[in-house]
């Protein structure tokens, strides 16, 4: 008889042989920065998450650094929007100013800048629109321009989330041409058209004004297509790739991580976060146990980087375990 239970006899033994261990250094915490002054807006569908104006951002950054989290993913919410998303690539845009503030005051904090037009366009789509069609090639120069402006502001990693074909090459060429050869690109490579994004769209004011994003984000029924997307992004110059969302796509994370040697990130998205928070608030689940189980599953599937709104709580729990 194989007595496998011998390795489960107590907590110390279980920790000794544990195959997958979460680390604070693997966590990335998303933050939302909004125009205005003295703003700390709670996001009703995402308990514990807020929009911050730049002058209130320090209180969040203090919590982040105190918990030992070294990386953040930043989303900017502009005051004005237009058809071409000009706020995304303005040198004094909300995201650019926020990054400068962060780098001036928290220089060791690694800043990942999301690159997309959806938060900045009046129609809410991730690319330029003509006659109801989202344009691919015409959007690429704007994404490249936004990437250069964010790199100039001090971003360490550029993270294109738009899902336009060819955008990684356009961004890499623009960064290199402007002297940013060392800036890393984390591509949202396998980004699915998902119902799990609804709370984020409230937080970032980025819901599409018409139709949906199914012509550029991936069909959630497709797994093998993700390999083609990742392969194309790596060939074009991506340094890291991402699967988004995470929990419903663990099979994709695993396949990508086993196929490619580049670091794989997984985005534990807003809907996944909000469902846990809602169930915990009703007393239906143990929040800590569920979150740690979920994130461990994401890492076990092959993610080396986990972007999650739970990061502050998880970092605190992991520190408690070390004591």
Automatic annotation (TrEMBL):
First-tier enzyme category under EC: lyase
Keyword tags: Heme biosynthesis, Lyase, Magnesium, Metal-binding, Porphyrin biosynthesis, Zinc
Cellular component, GO annotation: cytosol
Keyword Lyase: yes
Residues binding Mg(2+): 229
Record EC number: 4.2.1.24
Cofactor: Zn(2+)
Binding site for Zn(2+): 116, 118, 126
Binding site for 5-aminolevulinate 2: 270, 309
Listed pathway(s): Porphyrin-containing compound metabolism; protoporphyrin-IX biosynthesis; coproporphyrinogen-III from 5-aminolevulinate: step 1/4
GO molecular function: porphobilinogen synthase activity; zinc ion binding
Binding of 5-aminolevulinate 1, residues: 201, 213
Pfam families per the UniProt record, alphabetical: ALAD
List of catalytic residues: 191 (schiff-base intermediate with substrate), 244 (schiff-base intermediate with substrate)
PANTHER family: DELTA-AMINOLEVULINIC ACID DEHYDRATASE
Subunit structure: Homooctamer.
Family the entry assigns: Belongs to the ALAD family.
Function noted in UniProt: Catalyzes an early step in the biosynthesis of tetrapyrroles. Binds two molecules of 5-aminolevulinate per subunit, each at a distinct site, and catalyzes their condensation to form porphobilinogen.
Name of the featured protein: Delta-aminolevulinic acid dehydratase
Gene source species: Anaerocolumna chitinilytica
Lineage, uppermost ranks: Bacteria, Bacillati, Bacillota, Clostridia, Lachnospirales
């Amino acid at each position: 008889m194989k007595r496998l239970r011998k390795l489960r006899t107590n907590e110390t033994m279980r920790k000794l042989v544990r195959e997958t261990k979460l680390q604070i250094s693997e966590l990335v915490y998303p933050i939302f920065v909004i125009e205005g002054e003295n703003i700390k807006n709670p996001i009703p569908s995402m308990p514990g998450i807020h929009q911050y104006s730049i002058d209130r951002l320090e209180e969040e950054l203090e919590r982040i650094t105190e918990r030992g989290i070294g990386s953040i993913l930043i989303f900017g919410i502009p005051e004005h929007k237009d058809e071409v998303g000009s706020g995304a690539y303005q040198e004094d845009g909300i995201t650019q100013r926020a990054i400068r503030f962060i780098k001036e005051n928290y220089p060791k904090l690694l800043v990942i800048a999301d690159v997309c037009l959806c938060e900045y366009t009046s129609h809410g789509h991730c690319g330029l629109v003509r006659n109801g069609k989202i344009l691919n090639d015409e959007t690429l120069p704007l994404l490249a321009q936004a990437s250069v402006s964010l790199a100039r502001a001090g971003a360490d990693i550029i993270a294109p989330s738009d899902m336009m074909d060819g955008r990684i090459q356009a961004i890499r060429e623009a960064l290199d041409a402007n002297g940013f050869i060392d800036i890393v690109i984390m591509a949202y490579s396998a980004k699915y058209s998902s119902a799990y994004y609804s709370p984020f769209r409230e937080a970032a004011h980025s819901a599409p004004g018409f139709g949906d994003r199914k012509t550029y984000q991936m069909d959630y029924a497709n797994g093998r297509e993700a390999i083609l997307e990742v392969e194309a992004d790596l060939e074009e110059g991506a340094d890291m790739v991402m699967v988004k969302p995470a929990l419903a796509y663990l099979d994709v994370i695993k396949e990508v991580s086993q196929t490619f040697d580049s670091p794989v990130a997984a985005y534990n998205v807003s809907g996944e976060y909000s469902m846990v928070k809602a169930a915990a608030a009703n007393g239906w689940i143990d929040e800590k146990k569920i979150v740690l189980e979920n994130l461990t599953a994401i890492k076990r599937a092959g993610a080396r980087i986990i972007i999650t709104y739970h990061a502050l709580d998880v970092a605190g729990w992991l520190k408690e375990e070390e004591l």
